[in-house]
Amino acid sequence: MSEDFYDILGVSRDASEDEIEEAYREAVRKYHPDVSDDPDAEEKFKKAKKAKEVLTDEEKRRQYDQMGHERFSEAEKRGGVGGGSRQGGDPFGGGGGFNDVQDIFDQFFGGGGGGRSRNRPQSGQDLKTTLEIDLETAYHGADKELTVNRPEACDECDGRGHPPGTDSRACPRCDGQGQVTQVQQTAFGRMQQRSTCRRCGGEGTLYEETCSTCRGDGVVRNEASLQVEIPPGIRDGQTLRMDGEGAPGDRGARNGDLLVEISVTDHPDFERNGDDLKTRQPISFPQAVFGDTIEVETLDGPVEFDLEAGTQSGETFRLKGKGMPRLRRRGQGDLYVQVQVVTPDSLNEEQREALEEFAEAGGEDVEVDRGFFDRLKNSF
Ligand SMILES: [Zn+2]
Ligand SMILES: [Zn+2]
C-alpha cells in the first residue's frame, strides 16, 4: 500500500474537498476496526484519517503538494508544518484532537457527515460518598473496604447503549447534529437557544436496537467494592480522591473520580485538636500528694508517666509525640493529660479515722456527719 495520502484515499491529486471527505467516509466504513475483519484494518484506518486531516486543511495540503510525502512527513515530525486553520477545513471538528478511534466512528455514523457542532464526549461526573471511621483507624491508618452503588459502563454493550454492529441512522430531530436550535420571540427580540437533542441525547445517532441490559443508557448501577487507603493522621471532614472511580465517561471519555469524605467518630477517652490529643487521667489523693509512676493510655497503648509529688487536680501534662500522626508528614502531635484527683465517696472505718486525724493534724476542724458513715457501715 502506497504511503501517499492521495493513493491511500484513492482520489486524484486535484480532488475537491468533498471528494476527499467522501473517500474518507468510505475508508471508515471499510476499515473501522469495529466493523472490519481485515487484520490491518486499524493501520489502514489510521492512515486514512491522517490523509484526510492533511488534505482537507488548505494550508497543509498546499505544503504536502509542494514537498511531497517524504519531506512533508519529516517536516511534520519536526513541527514545521501547519498553520492552517482547522475550523471550517474540518467539518467534523469541534476543535481537533481526534485520537480516539471510537469517537470519530461515532461521529461518522452519527453525524452523517455534517456533525459540525456535535457534542464532544463528556468525562464522567465525580461522585461523592462518606466513610465513617473511628479515631483508632485515623491514628493507625488502614485499608478499608468501601461499598458504593454507582453508575458503571454497561458490560453487555461496552457502554455504547446498543449491541455492537447495530444499524444506525442520523437522528431526524436534530439532523444528526446532536443539538437543536430553538427560536423564541421575546420582549428583546428573537432569541436563539441551542440545547442538547432529547431524542438522541446529543449523540446525533439513533440505533435500530438498544441494549436490553442498560436499556440504551450505556450505564448500569452496580454495587462496587473498593479498597480505600486511609492514611494515618487523616482528620474528620477530609476528602480522599479515588481517580477514575466515579461515573463512567460518555462514549469512551474518562471516568469521573470518587470523592470519599472521611467522618471520624468521637472517641470516649480522647479529644482531638488538630494533631494533638487530650485525655483525662484519674489519680488518687495520696498519688497527688506523694507522686507516683502511673500508666497513661495512649492510642498506641499504655505508657508510664512520673507524677510529681504535690500535683493539683486539673493540672495538665504534655506527652510529646503521643498525639495523632501528622498526615503525610513525619512526626506526631502531643498528648495532653489532665489529671483529676478522685475524691472517694465511701471510706472504711480505718480510712475515716486516718482522714480525721489528718485534718486535725493540720489544725482543721471538720464537722463530720456521723449519720453518713453510719449509713455506710450498715450497708456493708
Ligand atoms: Zn438528535
Ligand atoms: Zn448496555
From TrEMBL:
Domain description: The J domain is necessary and sufficient to stimulate DnaK ATPase activity. Zinc center 1 plays an important role in the autonomous, DnaK-independent chaperone activity of DnaJ. Zinc center 2 is essential for interaction with DnaK and for DnaJ activity.
Similarity comment: family membership: Belongs to the DnaJ family.
Encoding gene per record: dnaJ
UniProt protein name: Chaperone protein DnaJ
Annotated compartments: Cytoplasm
Domain J, residue spans: 4-68
Binding site for Zn(2+) 1: 154, 157, 211, 214
CXXCXGXG motif repeat start and end residues: 154-161, 171-178, 197-204, 211-218
Region (Disordered): 29-101
Domain CR-type, residue spans: 141-223
Family matches, as InterPro entries: DnaJ, DnaJ_C, DnaJ_domain, HSP40/DnaJ_pept-bd, HSP_DnaJ_Cys-rich_dom, HSP_DnaJ_Cys-rich_dom_sf, J_dom_sf
Subunit structure: Homodimer.
Keyword Transmembrane helix recorded: no
Pfam (any one): DnaJ_C
CDD domains listed in its UniProt record: DnaJ (cd06257), DnaJ_C (cd10747), DnaJ_zf (cd10719)
Gene Ontology terms for molecular function: ATP binding; heat shock protein binding; unfolded protein binding; zinc ion binding
Highest taxon of the lineage: Archaea
Obligatory cofactor(s): Zn(2+)
Biased segments, Basic and acidic residues type: 51-79
Provenance organism: Halovenus aranensis
The record's free-text note on cofactor binding: Binds 2 Zn(2+) ions per monomer.
GO biological process, one term: DNA replication
Function per UniProt: Participates actively in the response to hyperosmotic and heat shock by preventing the aggregation of stress-denatured proteins and by disaggregating proteins, also in an autonomous, DnaK-independent fashion. Unfolded proteins bind initially to DnaJ; upon interaction with the DnaJ-bound protein, DnaK hydrolyzes its bound ATP, resulting in the formation of a stable complex. GrpE releases ADP from DnaK; ATP binding to DnaK triggers the release of the substrate protein, thus completing the reaction cycle.
Keywords: Chaperone, Cytoplasm, DNA replication, Metal-binding, Repeat, Stress response, Zinc, Zinc-finger
Bias type Gly residues, positions: 80-98
